[in-house]
Amino acid sequence: MRLVFSPPTMAKASSTSPGICYLVGAGPGDPGLMTLKGKECIEIADVLVYDYLCNIEHLRYAKPGAERIYVGKKAKDHTLTQDKINELIVQLTRAGKIVTRLKGGDPVLFGRGAEEAAELADAGVRFEIVPGITSAIAGPAYAGIPVTHRDHCSQLTIFTGHEDPTKDETSLDYAKIAKADGTKVFLMGVERMEEITGKFIANGADPDTPMALVRWATHGCQQTLVGTLGTMAAKVKEAGFKAPAVAVVGDVVKERAKINWFETRPLFGKRIVVTRTRQQAGVLSKKLRDLGADVIELPTIRIEEPTNLMLFGELVQDCHTYEWIIFTSPNGVDAFFKMFDKLYQDTRSIGGVRIACVGPGTAERVKARHLAVDVMPEKNFVAEGLVKALKDYQNFEHVSVLWVRGEDTREVIANELTALGAIVDEAIAYRNVPEKEDNLEALARLKNEGADMITFTSGSTVDCFMALGVPLPAGCKVASIGPVTSEAVKKHGLTVDVTTEVNTIPGLVAAIEKHWA
Ligand code: SAH
Fold first, then answer.
1. Ligand 1 binding pocket mutation candidate from 110, 135, 142 (most atoms within 8 A of CB)
2. Model-level pTM greater than 0.85?
3. In CATH, what number does 304-434 get?
């Protein structure tokens, strides 16, 4: 446990119970816009209670076995009512759990976080508030609109557009808001655009005041609509623009013409599916996102221990007796050293063995152990390329080789090296199994929103995607990391639209970028 808990400040709170509830701001959506403290709260949580606007990718930090409770809450469509949510978090905290309550943006800016805090205080249980990056400021910033600017304004008003301004019971005084200096930002206002902008103008605001709406701000699917107070309501109707969106009104909107940085990146507007395991997806997803893509992580496979773990252990134990160890995937390296570390306390126990790797991704994992890689193909990062590189390196007559592989890896290495006279033992280090649990939300997105491209990084990601029985969305291109993966794609009757020059993750990203350049 890494968080240092502050001592309970509530008179009634019990310091003996481990129960605590963290009311955490999950940020507006970009997975990077979560605070370090928020991330720690996810890591230590026994239970995660999260909302509609909270990016579920943050849940990847949760420890295995942590319970996840979705409490929904789109306007009008409450999975649990606020009372029930209050009750739930109080109950869980009372039961001694570490509860991390994730709320979109900042928890106390129109997030009802304060009400939840009050309930927890009343119940006498411990809680902390972990502020988050609010969509009210980050949303405009990601559209190239700073909410304050020395040339335009030095005041910011944030209000809710949820209340109907034409009703008597509204708590908002539009006469004051419309006349206030500076930038105005409102949340939850898309559905009442006509009433809200109408009230502004009726109360003396200039209809030509620049205005923008930012939908799904900071997500890869962000959309921005620019207009004026006078034109925005009609534009919303015409574009069929929907919630959730942040509205920003004021001269600062003009800055977008210069500093619209997020929407001008090379892959902005492209929805790309990543099918690797949840643990491995990160690197590819991040590279694509950094280029502006809207990434759907749809893990199709999961890595599990090999069927015969005992046999694998025995082979790893004897690894120092071989002349060569051959690794053909990063997963193999990870599984090998996981076992090695259980058996030995000293890396030198690997002995004077030589090491060969199929490509840079695999080699990187070996080098991370401060072990040198003796042989790797120069280009062709597949088994055939590795066999050639080994052949060029030395004669393999009577040479002993331990090949660390996955259960369903092609037999090329064993067949070819045996044909060269080598004595090859195969250490089956892991197996790929279809991922069936961790992808329901991603599957729903794929069906509802479609995709511009799907990426495959191994034959098994292809096979397992096809086994899901989900048709590829219309117009969806296929990108493959290399020849073996492409073969698997073709075997299923699909066409490969993008292939790499270099069969690596950076090579794949470069090819995708080039495809749309
Ligand atoms: N506590 C949240 C706001 C909750 S109210 C925060 O600090 O951001 C819900 C409203 O927030 C939505 O209707 C929408 O107006 C706005 N919102 C939240 N996340 C958003 C996002 N990523 N893009 C655009 N608007 C968002």
1. 135
2. no
3. 3.40.50.10090
